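Supplementary Note 3. Input sequence used for the single-chain structure prediction.
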Amino acid sequence: MDTQKACGSCGEPIIWLKTLSGKWMPVDVTDEAEHRLEAGQPFEAGRADLISHFATCPNAEAHRRS
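The predicted structure, written as discrete structure tokens, is reproduced below.
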């Protein structure tokens, strides 16, 4: 599966990574994110070296669940 995509709202490149709890989270494309993707290992949410795209997307509010 190709997990590198573009954000449907802002168009920035993102990678979908699985958290330790099994949920998928969009992450900004960085060298660390690409390395974790290749390793295929879930990651712990809240890591400083992986940036959730929800934190940087200018349109994040449109995707939040109520």
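The CA atoms of residues 33 and 50 lie 6 Å apart. The radius of gyration is 11 Å.
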